[in-house]
Amino acid sequence: MNTKVGVVSLGCDKNRFDTEVMLANLSKGGYEIVSSPEDADVIIVNTCAFLESARKEAIQTAFEMAGYKNTGKCKKVIITGCLGQKFGKEVFDEMHEVDAVIGIGDYDKICDIVGDTLKGERKLYQSCANGITFGDRILTTAPHTSYLKIADGCDNYCTYCLIPHIRGRFRSVEMDKIIEQATVLAKRGVKELILVAQDVTRYGKDLYGEYKLADLLRQLSDIDGIVWIRLLYCYPELIDDNLIEEISANDKIVNYIDIPLQHVNEEILHKMNRRSNAESIRNLFKKLTEKGIQVRSTFICGFPGETRSTIKELETFLLTNKLRNVGFFAYSREKGTPAAKFENQVAEYTKQSYVNRMYKAQYKVVDELNRTDVGNVFKCIIDKAPEFSHGKYFYVGRTYFMSPEIDGQVFIVSKKELTVGEFYDVKITDAVDYDLQGEVV
Questions:
Q1: For 192-247, what is each residue's pLDDT tens digit?
Q2: DSSP 36
Q3: Residue 1 and residue 240: Cα distance in Å, rounded?
Q4: Kind of pairing, strands 100-102 and 42-47?
Q5: How many Cβ atoms are within 10 Å of 282's Cβ, its own excluded?
């Protein structure tokens, strides 16, 4: 019988992409992929290590999976990903329940590593993070939606962030490889491509000497079968007029963009080593608003030096610019980053109070935007199979300003059966919290 391998993927969608490549490698190597840890001979935990909370989740999950050695058929547990890359030796030395620890540079060797581990060899694998995990994948998303990693690493070196120390310098995937994989995905039925990288706006600079995201978008738009292209993680200083015009004019690129601003106060932006400033951010949002481009963003609350005044400035920005989707995070003091040594560190309870205040402000914005949506008709993609009740079908879908899993949803009523993965015009009839309700036109 084939050895059965189960993989638990934690963290961001870039990590999920790596997991999908690893799953394909394992399958091609003769291993059987299973979805339940109870059925697995080997369990792999692909980890995140961006924040302390993510590291705690990763370690807790690894211990939980190791428990199947006693209660299930599991023989070995392997840790991969960012935790293995940055903190591999500590994990290997202290977590004896784990049979192998590997970083992000060894996914191409995963079949051999699993084989050696099954033979009884306990080993730490640590390669430099200078390659890019790319290749055939087994999708873990809905079959009509796929993430597409176009680069890895980061050159921004924000003072609060460990990513460059984990993932290495920014490096782009060759454009022909991206187009080739997108074409294959489209033939498999993928209709929505979600481009991801730590900084998608920097795409191509290292390979071609100039920023090539707009060119890449045009080539992806020519692929038959692709209906929506979505952009995540665009840094504000690199969103130029050329990119804005491409998003606005290209029917296949949704008028939605994820911009991790982190803050809008001039002094805090400077301390974060962000290249944008308060004025450039406001000018950018004026251009995006004029083009009707909806924005998702993230903000850090309680960065060293944060005060009631700076948090009020952020609140005013939210209420004025009315971002469609926003996430707020309490600053995490990460050892090894410059910000960890800054003066005027903010107390934990104060940071959390700032987060709560920002969510209250953003809820007002979302409530206003959603109520404005009532009566409008949006093209929606159907994500989930229906429930049938009282002669009607009830579906879950999304419109263009909703990215899967992190934003709201549209709960759709239809008198006729719809096809999951297809697009339909939906008239919005109501709004509940962050979600919309509608009926097929």
A1: 999 999 999 999 999 999 999 999 999 999 999 999 999 999 999 999 999 999 99
A2: -
A3: 55
A4: unpaired
A5: 13
CB 311, CB 354: distance < 8 Å:
yes
With H, G, I as helix, E, B as strand and everything else as coil, classify residue 394: strand
Chain centroid offset of residue 438 CA: 27
List of residues 6+ apart from 41 with CB closer than 8 A: 3, 4, 5, 73, 74, 75, 76, 118
Distance CA(23)–CA(271), nearest Å, equals: 40
Q: Is the dihedral of CA 331, 334, 337, 340 positive or negative?
A: positive
User: Are 45 and 8 spatial neighbours (Cβ–Cβ below 8 Å)?
Assistant: yes
DSSP string for residues in 289-324: HHTT-EEEEEEEES-TT--HHHHHHHHHHHHHH--S
pLDDT given for residue 158 in this prediction: 96
Backbone angles phi, psi at 18, to 5 degrees: -60, -40
Beta carbons of 440 and 391 less than 8 angstroms apart:
no
DSSP secondary structure letter of residue 143: T
Distance CA 172, CA 205 (A): 8
State the Rg of the chain over Cα: 22
Mean pLDDT (the chain) is 95
- pLDDT per residue over 99-142, tens digit each? 999 999 889 899 999 999 999 889 999 877 788 999 999 999 99
Phi, psi of 315 (to 5 degrees): -60, -45
Alpha-carbon gap, residue 372 to 370, rounded angstroms: 5
Largest CA distance in the chain: 64
Q: Are 380 and 397 in contact (CB under 8 A)?
A: yes
**Quick count: other Cβ atoms within 10 Å of Cβ 355?**
20
- C-alpha distances in angstroms, 99 versus 20, 63, 92, 185, 203? 22, 12, 8, 34, 37
Return the DSSP state at 262.
B
Contact 151, 170 (CB under 8 A): yes
Side-chain-facing half-sphere of 202: CA atoms under 13 Å: 17
Nearest CA-CA partner of 5 in 97, 91, 68: 68
Tokens 């921004």 sit on residue: 156
